Amino acid sequence: MNDNHKDLQKLVVDDTVYLTRLTPKFAGRKTFVPKDPKRICAVIPGVILDVTVNKGQRVMRDQSMLVLEAMKMKNSIKAPFDGVIKSIHVSQGKQVAKGELLIEFE
Amino acid sequence: MSLKSKLIELFSKKEKISTGGGEKALQKQVAMGKLPARERLKVLLDPNSFHETDLFVEHKCEDFDMDKKQLPADGVITGIGSIHNRPVSVFAQDFTVAGGSLGLMHARKITKVMDHAVRMGIPLIGINDSGGARIQEGVNSLAGYGEIFYRNTLASGIIPQVSVILGPCAGGAVYSPALTDFVFVVDKISKMFITGPEVIKTVLGEEISMEDLGGARVQTEITGNAHFYAESEMECFEQIKRLMSYIPWSNREKAPAITPRLPKSQFDVERIIPTEATKPYDIRDIIKSICDDSDFLEIQERWASNIVIGFARMNGETVGIVGNQPLVLAGVLDVDSSDKAARFIRYCDAFNIPLVTLVDLPGYLPGVDQEHAGVIRHGAKILYAYSEASVPKITVILRKAYGGGYIAMCSRHLGADFVFAWPTAEIAVMGPEGAANIIFRGEIAAAKDPDAVRKQKVQEYTEKFANPYVAASNGHVDAVINPYETRDAIIHALRASANKEETRPNKKHGIPPF
């Protein structure tokens, strides 16, 4: 029996503050960031096979911008809307992780 | 040939096969800190109780020069032994023979003891130590896995199935343990994953060690795939024997009862539980204050520890205990804890083990990550499991029981047979702060001193609703009891429920929110 529990922190549920231990999973949870449609990120980890657009280029919706190979499939990453490319964060041959930023629109 | 020479032939054949993969491979096994497969069975089972089957089985593969290769016992030892003097079906993969790889005959040896276990109504314990499918046997080794998974599923809920991971267990091989009831792992020895570090590196470029990917700690702390963690193989076998002492041998019987013993006196309710609703304490101390000999076998101790599950005995008979843990995340229900409790409830229900639920929780864990992780679907599992369970269900509300959490924790409304509450119980739609802030929102906002008014309203709400009497006046709680009488109340309720019979509408099966 242990009356003095160390490592207690505060947790709020329905406006009430509870003293308790936090699990590593809870303590390490990511805060939610709303999706920014102008930032094109990798939905799957893989390798960039080809980049077919340049910085500053105007692209049309559904125009292919780059090819991401993942799980032996060549995925063509297309522009979600008409726009101008602000920056490209990858180049041919680069290994990307899931969620990694690939291209940003203006 | 005389009988004597025939016997000599038999003994020498047995001797030769029993050495497994030979001296060199054996030394390698020991160097990895692992016990040889036969030693493992010796430690696990009662002395001299093991009777081997299918020692002479040989593989039938002729491709890739396999016809010239002899694999003693085809890499797996199978048979019947006993634990606590009761028969169990066992298999132990032998890593010294072709890395314990699974071919068709290897699998058929396993399915034979599985079939035997189901027919005889005895538990199945499998020791896994295998590099995976025997590639040379091609699709036949996949067939072998499939035949095992199928039987694991059919046997589920009929006999206890225990998996012991004592080596690598990769790819398809992990799915048999995943389908069984209890998975045991040992630090630095057990490794479980679907795709190993090498594949992950080639495909994704991510580098990780086997240990960090799927070692014993990962499986008991992060994924919840394993139920028991041990520092050594010897400790692991002791844990298995302890577990086996609590559970029935099949769904046709009850768990064996032992001589009742009183709880140890150092677990004093008054010292453990704070009356203030926001202070933490360790629910396991409460469990130890009410169960026989203060002996509690916790399951999945290191994962989703905001809920505590495990076996204990009340008056000599096994019960399954589910308790919220105020010490961790204030005892909230969330994705993992709901999952953990729901599976345990279904285990107890399948094997005629009464459920004792100890309630003290502020509700479900708020947060975007929880909602997006599907807390609705996962939280529903606990509702489903409790509602479906027809074993005796006894609930004690110790302190907080708010909102959806109150309903979920085996409330009267989900079919609890007996619901007790301590005088410290607060059974309400939500905590006083939250409730007052909503109900009196207008009054608080309009006040000159909102904080003072809020405080006063919280106080009012607390006095009126933060108690067990509103629920008791509605019959949702059967009795408000003195905490010191908890054990007696539970034992009395268990005795009253001994012949419980609850029939349900006939159906093929329900559709739980898996």
What's a concise summary of this model?
The complex is a heterodimer of chains A (106) and B (514). With 106 residues, chain A is mainly beta. Helix content of chain A is 4%, strand content 44%.
Describe the structure.
The complex is a heterodimer of chains A (106) and B (514). Chain A is mainly beta and 106 residues long. Chain A has 1 helix and 10 strands, in the order E-E-H-E-E-E-E-E-E-E-E. Chain A has one helix at 24-27, and strands at 9-13, 16-20, 39-41, 46-51, 58-59, 64-70, 73-78, 83-88, 95-96, 101-105. In chain A, strand 6 and strand 7 form a beta hairpin. The longest helix of chain A has 4 residues, at 24-27. In chain B, helix 6 (175-179) links the parallel strand 5 (161-170) and strand 6. The longest helix of chain B is centred in the N-terminal third of the chain and has 17 residues, at 104-120. Chain B starts with a helix and ends in an 18-residue tail after the last helix. The model of chain B has no long low-confidence stretch (mean pLDDT 94). The chains are: A mainly beta (106), B alpha/beta (514). Chains A and B meet through strand 1, strand 2 and helix 1 of A and helix 14 and helix 17 of B.
- First-to-last CA distance of chain B: 62 Å
Task: Give the low-confidence spans of chain A.
Answer: none
**What's the Cα radius of gyration of chain A?**
21 Å
Number of helices of chain A: 1
Radius of gyration from the alpha-carbon trace of chain B, in angstroms? 26 Å
Secondary-structure map:
The complex is a heterodimer of chains A (106) and B (514).
Chain A: E1 9-13, E2 16-20, H1 24-27, E3 39-41, E4 46-51, E5 58-59, E6 64-70, E7 73-78, E8 83-88, E9 95-96, E10 101-105
Antiparallel strand pairs in A: 1-2, 3-10, 4-6, 4-9, 5-8, 6-7, 8-10
Chain B: H1 3-18, H2 23-31, H3 37-44, E1 51-53, E2 76-83, E3 86-93, H4 104-120, E4 124-130, H5 139-155, E5 161-170, H6 175-179, E6 182-186, E7 191-193, H7 197-204, H8 210-214, H9 216-222, E8 228-230, H10 233-246, H11 269-272, H12 283-290, E9 297-299, E10 307-314, E11 317-324, H13 335-350, E12 355-361, H14 368-372, H15 375-388, E13 393-402, H16 403-408, E14 418-421, E15 426-428, H17 432-439, H18 441-446, H19 450-465, H20 469-473, E16 479-480, H21 486-496
Helix pairs in contact in B: 4-5, 13-15, 17-19
